[in-house]
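Example record

The entry below shows one chain as it appears in the dataset: sequence first, then structure tokens.
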Amino acid sequence: MKFAVFGVLAGTAGLVAGVWLPAGQAGVVGAAVLALCGGAAARNESALSDRRQERERAAAGLLTKDAHGGLPRVREVQDPVLVGIHPYQHEDGDLPESRWNTPPYIPRDIEADLHAAVESGGFVLLVGESTAGKTRSAFEAVRLLAPDHFLLSPRNRDGISSVLVALRIRRRYLVWLDDLERFLGPGGLTASALGRILESGSTVVATVRTPEYDRFGDHAEAVVDRSDHEVWRDGRDVVRRAKKIRIPRRWSPAERERAQSYRNDRRINRALSASEAFGVAEVLAAGPELLEAWQNAWSPGAHPRGAALVLAAVDVRRAGMHEAVPVSLLERLHEIHLRNRGGSPLRPEALEDALAWALRPLGHTGASMLVGEPATGLRAFDYFLDTLDLEVVPDESWDLILAAARPRDALDMGMVSLLESRHDRAERAFGVAAGAGLAAADVAKAVIMGKTGRIDQAVVELRSIWESRRSSLGREHADTLDAHAELAYLTLKQGRAAEALELMRELLPLREARLGTDHPDTLDTHLQIANAIGRLGRPADAAERCRSLLGRFQRELGPDHIDTLDVEARTATWTGKSGRYSEAFDLAEEVVRRRTAVLGADHADTLYARGRAVAWLSAMELHEAALERARGLLEDRERVLGSDHLHTLHTRRQVARLVARVEGFDRALTVWRETLDEHVRILGPEHPLTRKVIGLSGFRAEGPWGPLGGAPGRRAAACTGRTSVVRQRGEVPCRAPRPGEPFRSQH
């Protein structure tokens, strides 16, 4: 239309010129006007084309589009499955809600908090178990409160780039991220990308399952070593910015009472009848029915291959891959579970039949065990992830998954393995990501080397990474600062405290300039400087520095933040190492009390604080009380962390040393033997901690593990008292611990 107008204007100008001007001049004027109008039309067409291309780029990686392929408004979304709401099928007699094909929405108890959070804008995150009703509650809220916002719903992590493109067209946006874990990480939703989205005035509404949220919560922060933070930090920083609303799976009496008004909908009626055992939303999504059908499918001649395919898809997600995967991968993986469950005697069905069964909606619902399309990829229904009581992913399965993983998936797999203390897997996964040039993976791989006894090699690797980043990115770049911090931290763990202190003092002004004087990373650098000073033989100075830092942590992070609690623990540690054992014990007891109240009795940090209290009791020569506590701590650490965790191994060493003090070395021989066997089994004979046990116990073993190893059932000699034994590498002093000698381990 606009181009026609330009043509008419040009023609009119020519006619007017012909009436009022001589023929020659009229031709010139007409041509000039025509050229001007044509140029304007061309420019306008080009601008329209640019805007059209911009809209197309913005919509390219998004799930929801309007009828013209552009961005829809929230109120225009017709298909609830596109935003993650579980599909449902109608039954005769159900209330006719054909547009949404879902049961009536029943307000939850979190409604007021949720609406306030959405209305105020920013980043809203609903946290809960699978089928708790997170997605339905969130989308009902945005339909009510932001119906005219344009909806940006990325397909996956790659779709975040489409969101950032859309922000160039200034509109009111609602960014929808169902299953937040699918979008986190390099190339996806980083802290920087989230900042750009929020600075545009857009509202972000997301959901996340509780186990995935916990990967970035307080528990993970206790498990993840400081030197692992680069790979983990971005997800943590994203989650920290959210206004978090927890929604329970089990419905409250008030919620069930509100649901009574909808009992004439047979879906609601069925869910209410089962709500004493399950959540209403859980039953509506057919979670319990699907689980029961999967369990029954293992019967011979039923659907064992289909059940194995589901279990294979669950393995993929538990390993750290969140996106749909090809059927070809599930074909290879499911054979492992099928074989482990009995193989051919199960009389498994044909693969085509197995896939059809796993994808078939169950009964009155639209839910199925596998989600997606065979042609584009399949995922496990997340209900299985939260309900199946499974061991770790089998090694053979994990290897196949890593071989199929993209570099960013490999990074996620490494992080999951790290949180599970599977350092062998984590190193391999980070190696795949690092080989593809993915930022943070090279540092993470070096950190794993340090964790597995190759700390000298790890420091060499980190120094090379730091120098490379400093040259290519500059001293103040965030990635350079991260490598700098990790190098300083591991140099301190290496025992080179003076060099570590120099690195930290160089790092501090750079972090202050980039992040500010009270940023958590800047405060952490101050804390690490205090630790380095303590390691240099000035524990009283370190304790005083920690005390002075405590107020800043309390003010900036809050009194109950996990980092603030860590400063309190460090204060107790350095107080004890300065020889003030009684004061250190009192401080450690207060740390135990505070961590129990804030984090819980089974939190890894709470257990750690209990271990420090044991150390100070022993240093005060209250060995019997210390032994009783140490045995209780060992039991709890085995229950919570597992027998293979490094902290559990540390407590074994504590118990053995205390048995020697309280019950004598004859009794201690058996305990040391068991402790050594566990260290060799878990860490290998050459690990520094295994060597430490050999040094403390005085065992000499002749076996397949070499001169310092110890094999069960082999001849061994043990040290008794302050004598020495001759080992295959020469004479090594061996003694019982001196009274009042504190433990040196930081665990």
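Notes for this example: The CA atoms of residues 392 and 420 lie 9 Å apart. The longest helix spans residues 23-60.
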